[in-house]
């Protein structure tokens, strides 16, 4: 057996594995013997069938399997032992000649290897990078207070519809000015006109009262959104196109959502009983949490600026774009060509990954299991908070975080988030920060130019 490696270009490698029969035959014979032990062959007891019959039955398949296993083992053994800076995974080369497993004894397998480019990247106090601090004004705290109050709204019966109210009533499919025979007839259907896509349909409810009958077209109201329509009409999404006409809606109940009062009951529902004792503490708690979230956002922005700064400092890197395009397509579940725009985005992300990994090593950043767990718990808390659920007990947060970490895609994303959070913290002590205080609006505007 022989393994050789050459570099046709700085961005690509060609790895060739040559096998002789003696390299794989012992493993083939071992597998044939193992198969023979339990083979059911008419006329012979298990384990006594002639090897010639076993060879004819499964020999080629076992040979192919053992050759493939040996090639894979030697391929990654060479790449790992020689620390080849591979990008993605090996691909069969177009220089590969056809191999006949049945007829040949000797084989040659050729692989294309995309190589990571060499580059220099060192950051120090000589490097000056912007860092934005967000000012949290009282008006932003007030907005959050009112948001909490709205989330804890309670329904109150009303006689006249106002924007944002919830309606309940009978929804009947029409044909002309009469109910459609065999059509949809829902005795109690809930509607929130505020969330209709079509403004003309929304206006039909202006000033509506209990008992009024309004003719609407759900398909128009919800812009043919099959998910919305199937939920409202209680039908399958595939059936939505069969019900594009008018419906009558007789209002039987109007519920006006009244925001919660800013009192102890609201404080307890958000942060737990007794955690906040008065409105002053409530607002201070909100401002503190907003500050923590804003700090994370500022760190994220800082890392984006580090990425741009480092990319400019490193300059253009050499990649084999054609080979990368093949690797991306080979990894994709979709049978489609990779566009130039998609390739450019992938190359840009790859460049950052290489630079980030270099910076992680230079800064001595390592991720411990406990840190990953804390990142997952933080993500879990944020998800619950989006639905107005604060003060969730740690045991529930921990269980939810563990579930997130069992999902490979979520785990990878959380690892990246945790590493980049640590990298941002480390780099703030390495480079010189050009600090600037900005409002939330000014901070958000920064992302419009990215």
Automatic annotation (TrEMBL):
It comes from Pseudoprevotella muciniphila. PANTHER family: TRIGGER FACTOR CHAPERONE AND PEPTIDYL-PROLYL CIS/TRANS ISOMERASE, TRIGGER FACTOR-LIKE PROTEIN TIG, CHLOROPLASTIC. Its EC number is 5.2.1.8. Residues 1-146 form the Trigger factor ribosome-binding bacterial domain. This is Trigger factor. InterPro entries: Trig_fac, Trigger_fac_C_sf, Trigger_fac_ribosome-bd_bac, Trigger_fac_ribosome-bd_sf, Trigger_fact/SurA_dom_sf. NCBIfam families: tig. One of its GO terms (biological process) is 'de novo' cotranslational protein folding. Pfam families: Trigger_N (PF05697). It is an enzyme of class 5 (isomerase). GO terms for molecular function: peptidyl-prolyl cis-trans isomerase activity; protein folding chaperone; ribosome binding. It comes from the Bacteria. The keyword Isomerase applies. Keywords: Isomerase.
């Amino acid at each position: 057996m022989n393994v050789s490696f050459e570099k046709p270009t700085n961005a690509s490698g060609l790895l060739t594995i040559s096998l002789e029969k003696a390299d794989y035959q012992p493993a083939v014979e071992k597998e044939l013997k193992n198969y023979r032990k339990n083979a059911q062959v008419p006329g012979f007891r298990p384990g006594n069938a002639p090897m010639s019959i076993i060879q004819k039955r499964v020999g080629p398949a076992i040979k192919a399997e053992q050759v493939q296993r040996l090639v894979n083992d030697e391929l990654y053994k060479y790449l790992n032992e020689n620390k080849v800076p591979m990008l993605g995974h090996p691909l069969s080369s177009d220089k590969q000649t056809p191999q006949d497993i049945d007829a040949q004894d000797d084989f040659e397998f050729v692989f294309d290897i995309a190589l990571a480019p060499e580059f220099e990247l060192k950051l120090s106090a000589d490097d000056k990078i912007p860092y934005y601090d967000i000012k949290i004004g009282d008006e932003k705290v007030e907005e959050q207070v009112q948001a909490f109050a709205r989330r804890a709204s309670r329904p109150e019966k009303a006689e006249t519809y106002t924007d944002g109210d919830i309606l309940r009533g009978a929804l009947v499919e029409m044909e002309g000015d009469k109910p459609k025979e065999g059509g949809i007839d829902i005795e109690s259907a809930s509607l929130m006109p505020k969330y209709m896509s079509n403004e003309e349909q929304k206006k039909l409810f202006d000033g509506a009262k209990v008992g009024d009958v309004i003719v609407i077209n759900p398909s128009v109201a919800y812009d043919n959104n099959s998910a919305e329509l199937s939920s409202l009409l209680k039908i399958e999404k595939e059936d939505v196109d069969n019900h594009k006409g008018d419906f009558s809606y007789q209002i039987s109940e109007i519920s006006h959502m009244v925001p919660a009062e800013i009192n102890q009951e609201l404080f307890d529902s958000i942060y737990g009983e007794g955690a906040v004792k008065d409105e002053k503490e409530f607002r201070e708690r909100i401002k503190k949490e907003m500050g923590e979230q804003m700090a994370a956002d500022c760190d994220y922005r800082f890392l984006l600026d580090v990425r741009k700064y480092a990319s400019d400092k490193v300059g253009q890197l050499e990649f084999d774009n054609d080979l990368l395009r093949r690797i991306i397509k080979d990894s994709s579940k979709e049978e489609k060509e990779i566009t130039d725009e998609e390739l450019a985005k992938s190359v840009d992300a790859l460049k950052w990954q290489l630079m980030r990994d270099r910076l992680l090593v230079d800064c001595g950043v390592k991720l411990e299991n406990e840190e990953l767990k804390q990142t997952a718990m933080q993500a879990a808390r944020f998800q619950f908070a989006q639905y107005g659920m604060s003060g969730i007990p740690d045991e529930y947060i921990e269980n939810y975080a563990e579930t997130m970490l069992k999902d490979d895609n979520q785990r990878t994303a959380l690892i990246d988030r945790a590493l980049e959070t640590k990298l941002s913290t480390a780099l703030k002590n390495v480079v010189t920060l050009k600090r600037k205080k900005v409002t939330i609006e000014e901070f958000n505007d920064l992302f419009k130019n990215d």
